[in-house]
Design a protein that fits this description.
single chain; alpha/beta; Rossmann fold; Serine Threonine Protein Phosphatase 5, Tetratricopeptide repeat; elongated; binds guanosine-5'-triphosphate; binds magnesium ion
């Protein structure tokens, strides 16, 4: 079935006829086939440009058969047709798409240009055709200006300079090989095109469809671009895109993560937000937490603490300790919602029970100071701090030291915990340890050791340690 382009322009890619031809297999190297095999989608290669420049002829040369109608007297291609090469992985394919050419009449140009426009964003690579023997770029300049100004589109662009056999001075070698003079003129032509259209030379390829000269190189260039733009090896997002688009929430979450952290892709909060939201709506617990983060921090969406709480709660109620902790923090800090220590305590407790060390510390703190609507309870406090301290959470170790020193008067224990935190560069613990040495509590008195720890703490910015050191200096004077 052939479909006339104007019938269903927007549905074009989904509906138009792909001929069952495959690309001339000799035109692809084993390495190229191997690289293409990683791709699990259809790479669409558009051939566009002025009528009669050899779009259909180029496709015929790449396919190795006269499948597309060509003519040297009248504009020929009136419909969109394509030839598809299915990759050995049976998942992806490469489709070469022949389109009608511009330059026939003003009215058709407007029509065809809008046809091109509607296809560009879905195209993987666009091959824009020029002729080696052409001098006038007026129409091409217009088409370029209206179609290829966006960077997104330009990175898909290849300029094919067809008809190299027609470049002056003509030669009659058979098979065709350009002469030295033709090579020189071709080189000049390519430079001219490169600067006229502001396209790097690497994206320009000269060939002759008629003589099948270097059409293989054209296919190589197309393949390289397809691989660079679609292969999951170079585009990590491609690993998940297909499944994400078909509604797989795990793939949607993974895609969200890639964009959120810019992991192998350009960091893009809008995209991250989009994919996290898709996954979160489907109940993905971790995606719900990230969505909460994005609302809380105003990433990819305007800051909205109530939406943040909504998503954190969804995630927390599914048992996510990170969301439980985040909710605890929001209510404890009371910056954007009214402070509610009781609510904070309840969320922290849920997270703490699941082993979230920062939450265990906060529960310990609430019991140490009785700031959660409950009475001070040192035994409870010690119990929670110890859980976090065993995971090397230095603030809990320091607070344990403090309770043992000041409430339990167990200086050996105090020394033990301060030392653990001090060894992890906890500056307040270093100061506290210095004090124990100075006062000989839980350890033999040692001014030297006291000074050593004060110095460490002072270096990290502990003010009390600085004052202590100053006192020592003053005593000496
Ligand atoms: N000498 C020479 N002639 C070519 C070459 N490529 C195509 N032609 C001729 O140019 C004429 C037009 O080629 P087509 O392939 O029909 O051009 P098209 O771009 O598809 O044209 P439309 O379908 O009208 O847009 C045909 O007679 C081709 O034989 C080439 O490399 N060298
Ligand atoms: Mg044609």
């Amino acid at each position: 079935m052939r479909i006339i382009y104007s019938d269903i322009i927007f549905e074009l890619f989904r509906h138009f006829s792909y001929q069952p031809y495959s690309i001339h297999i000799d035109h692809l190297s084993n390495t190229e086939i191997h690289e293409l095999n990683y791709i699990e989608e259809d790479a669409k290669i558009l051939f566009i440009g002025k009528t009669g420049y050899g779009k259909s002829s180029t496709l015929n040369s790449l396919i190795g058969k006269e499948c597309f109608k060509t003519s040297n007297v009248e504009s020929c291609t009136r419909v969109c047709e394509g030839a598809r090469y299915q990759f050995p992985n049976q998942q992806g394919s490469l489709t070469l798409i022949d389109l009608p050419g511009v330059g026939e009449s003003k009215q058709l140009d407007t029509e065809y240009t809008s046809l091109y426009e509607s296809l560009l964003s879905e195209a993987t690579v666009i091959v824009y055709l020029l002729r080696a023997d052409q001098r006038d770029f007026a129409i091409d300049e217009q088409v370029f200006g209206s179609l290829f100004s966006a960077n997104e589109i330009r990175k898909k662009l290849i300029i094919g300079v067809n008809g190299v056999d027609k470049i002056e001075p003509l030669n009659r070698r058979h098979p065709f090989v350009p002469t030295y003079e033709q090579h020189l003129n071709l080189d000049k032509k390519i430079n001219e095109i490169s600067s006229f259209f502001s396209i790097e030379r690497e994206a320009i390829i000269a060939y002759s469809a008629m003589e099948s000269w270097k059409t293989r190189d054209l296919l190589s260039l197309i393949t390289q671009k397809v691989v660079a733009l679609l292969s999951p090896k170079y585009n990590p997002e491609k690993r998940f895109e297909k499944r994400a688009k078909s509604g797989d929430r795990t793939a949607q979450y993974s895609l969200g993560l890639l964009y959120y952290f810019g992991d192998g892709v350009i960091q893009d909060y809008k995209n991250a937000f989009y994919w996290f939201e898709c996954a979160a709506q489907k109940g993905h617990m971790e995606a719900q937490n990230y969505l909460g983060d994005m609302f809380a921090n105003g990433q990819g969406i305007s800051k909205d603490i109530y939406h943040a709480i909504y998503w954190y709660k969804n995630s927390a109620n599914q048992g996510n300790p990170i969301s439980q902790f985040n909710l605890g923090l929001i209510y404890m800090e009371g910056k954007q919602v009214s402070q509610n220590n009781l609510e904070a305590f309840q969320w922290f407790l849920k997270a703490a029970i699941q082993g979230e060390v920062a939450a265990q510390h906060n529960i310990g703190y609430f019991y140490q100071y009785g700031t959660c609507g409950k009475d001070i309870d040192y035994d409870q406090s010690i119990n929670w701090y110890k859980k976090a301290a065993k995971e090397n959470y230095s603030s809990s170790q320091n607070n344990l030291g403090y309770i043992y020193e000041n409430e339990k008067k167990d200086y050996l224990q105090a020394f033990y915990w301060y030392k653990k935190a001090a060894d992890q560069d906890h500056k307040n613990a270093q100061f506290n340890l210095g004090r124990l040495f100075e006062e000989g509590k839980g350890v033999l008195q040692s001014t030297f050791a006291a000074k050593t720890w004060y110095k460490k703490a002072a270096r990290l910015g502990n003010k009390l340690a600085k004052e202590k050191l100053k006192e020592y200096q003053d005593e000496r004077m």
